[in-house]
Amino acid sequence: MLSTALAAVLGTTVVSVASAANAADTPLSQGKPATASSVESAAFPASAAVDGNAGTRWSSTFADPQWLQVDLGSSQSISQVVLNWEAAYASAFTIQTSANGTSWTTISPVTAGQNGVQTLNVTGSGRYVRMSGTTRATPYGYSLWEFQIFGSGGTTPTLPTSDTPDLGPNVRIFEPSTPASTIQTAVDQAFNAQLRSPTAQFGSQRHVFLFKPGTYGRVWANVGFYTTIAGLGLNPDDVTINGAVNVDSGWNYGDESNATQNFWRSMENLSIVPEGGTNRWAVSQAAPMRRVHIKGNLTLAPSNQDNGQGYSSGGYLADSVVDGVVSSGSQQQWYTRDSRISRWDGGVWNMVYSGVQGAAANAFPNPPHTTLATTPVTREKPYLYVDSAGLYRVFVPAIRRNSAGATWPNTAGTSIPMREFYVAKPGDTAARINQALAQGLNLFFTPGTYSLNDTIRVTRANTVVTGIGFPTLIPTGGVEALNVADVDGVKVSGLTFDAGTTNSPTLMSVGRAGVHTDHAANPISLQDVFFRIGSSVQGKATTTLAVHSDDTIIDHIWAWRADHGGAPTGWTVNTGDTGLIVNGDDVLATGLFVEHYQKYEVIWNGNRGKTIFFQNEKPYDVPNQAAWIGPRGNGYAAYKVADAVTDHELWGGGSYAYFNVNPSVRVDRAFEVPNRSGVRLRSVLTVSLGDVGTIANVVNDTGGAVPNPAGNTTPRNVVAYP
């Protein structure tokens, strides 16, 4: 509508940033002298808007009107202006040119601004070009990451894109005509290289195996660390694997008896005809199964569970169909969302279901099933597929409300061609990635490790930022790795963040503190996003994720301050206060895993927040009680709802103690919430693992202590609070 209106008025056109990327690409303005009517502070000079760095910005004082202008050095023909607005943008502005910097000619109409990248095709000439802002969209000033002027004077290439991209050496793509022996050899080589390896859990290896549509003969794929098995069909049944996609115990060096460290692996968008009738997926955290059709039974426990030691602990299943029975066995906690199963058998402490057709009846704590008929708001994770012409695309499912059951085979949503993505590869710098965003592209991260000396800044509404094969972003110099502006519909998925050796105040943030914009119709979503403080890096971060934007969907994250790693860990080594801070209102978390942080692990300041499934372990390594005194006594609660919050709901939460460094340590409560009728907790529990350490109460001063005199690892349960 905006493009049409402007074209009608002046013959100018506001075009989409994707098509604008093919216009004249050298900014005549880059590096040229820039001045402004004002600056918010010395940290936001006018020059920052023309330095070619999408991570620096000009910001004015908080008043109307304001202007920013650039001196091109000589008169130039101007054909295009690109403005990369920060969240504080102009709701009305014009573009003006001048030969002398005194007399100005307007070459655009009074234009409605938009958060993110805005491209104007114009006709004009002048030595000086000015953005003249007349009305602010927010209470803050005018703020531009980049102000780019295009016209005559040479070009530099845009970043390349393709509908048949090279996904790098860590991705293998198979077709139905590929011999089964070739596929088996490839998956075996990936797995056997890390079998009982002392370094694989925090290694640099990354493996993605993609299957084009069709049926595949016997493939038995053991899935190890940083390994993804996925189909490339539009629907799961477009790819059928006969055999297994298998995860079991006995693989991990130093923990062969359990599956409690089966992290960082995934399966997505395919169907399995399991050999013997049952597929095994004995995983713990950060191991999602999404959009899968199991044409038989599914077991979530390891093969040695009957020996009384083979545990798995914490997993996630969504948008899937299991024709047979799901057996959780020794799986200690699990969350299933928006799926269909024939029956669920078993449960240890904390089995949670929302929108699951065929789920066990709500019966917490005996048996320990917490069941919601629907999920309040969902948007399934974007996924890669191949169309009928052999071209690669990313499908972005649409938002659903009060949903139940799988979305497929007729998933509503939008298909985006891969030519609208920049395919990032290890070695890409933050500057290059930000250049791609400024070019109007989405981001697709291929497997590997990315060292970032600057923040990746997502400022355009509806940008898709996704990855396959656990691409790992590591900030250097204490920067924030990823910042999402307070705009509609950004989707971030499939990324892992490792804190760097210099403390970062945050690893990722969404929106801007203090800004409350209604995004209910098109929320920002985070899916399969994992954070680590301590891994192969002795990392440090005060907070891993801060969510300021209203209505954000947090769908399966694991924020983990490491209790072990490839590099040494310890109380003063890999430091981190809080895993998640929620300041936005109406934020929904579905599948929230946060562990081992040194203060409040989740702090929820926003109103009308909801969490469905929360899994937590307290820090193992508290050296003594004196080192761990919170604002309200011994230790810090795992889940803190701020005193000012009037409306909050949590279904299915567990917090576990294992103070093995000093078993005399205690924490006064696992959940700390204001005593208001609008703040409601359902099906919450605590456990002292092996009776090592004490949690004195479940919620506030209610629920009793663990260790429970009834016996080893017996939980304390609170069915409803208040």
Q: What share of the residues lie within helices? A: under 10%
SSE class? mainly beta
Number of E-state strands: 52
Summed up, the helix count is 4
Low-confidence stretches: 1-24
End-to-end distance, in Å? 50 Å
Radius of gyration (CA) equals 26 Å
Shape: globular
Give the averaged pLDDT, no decimals: 93
Give a short account of the largest sheet.
14 strands, parallel
Strand content: 35-45%
Short characterization:
The protein has 722 residues and is mostly beta strands. The chain contains four helices and 52 strands. The protein is globular.
Give a written overview of the molecule.
- This protein is mainly beta.
- Helix content is 5%, strand content 43%.
- The chain is built from four helices and 52 strands.
- Strands 9, 10, 11, 12, 13, 14, 15, 16, 17, 18, 19, 20, 21 and 22 form a 14-stranded parallel beta sheet that branches. Strands 28, 29, 30, 32, 33, 35, 37, 39, 41, 43, 47, 50 and 52 form a 13-stranded mixed beta sheet that branches.
List the helices and strands and how they pair.
Elements (H helix, E strand, L loop, with lengths): L1 H9 L2 E3 L1 H4 L13 E3 L21 E2 L6 E20 L4 E9 L6 E2 L9 E21 L6 E9 L19 E4 L5 H13 L14 E5 L2 E9 L4 E5 L7 E8 L18 E10 L3 E3 L8 E6 L2 E3 L16 E3 L2 E7 L5 E13 L4 E8 L11 E4 L2 E5 L3 E4 L5 E6 L1 E5 L9 E5 L3 E4 L5 H9 L3 E4 L3 E4 L3 E3 L5 E4 L4 E4 L6 E3 L6 E8 L5 E7 L14 E9 L7 E7 L5 E9 L16 E5 L5 E8 L6 E3 L4 E9 L11 E2 L2 E2 L4 E3 L6 E10 L8 E2 L3 E2 L6 E10 L5 E2 L20 E6 L1
Parallel strand pairs: 9-10, 10-12, 11-13, 12-14, 13-14, 14-16, 15-17, 16-18, 16-19, 17-19, 18-20, 19-20, 20-21, 21-22, 28-29, 29-32, 30-33, 31-34, 32-35, 33-35, 34-36, 35-37, 36-38, 37-39, 38-40, 39-41, 40-42, 41-43, 42-46, 43-47, 46-49, 47-50, 48-51
Antiparallel strand pairs: 1-7, 2-4, 3-8, 4-7, 4-8, 5-6, 5-7, 23-26, 24-25, 25-27, 44-45, 50-52
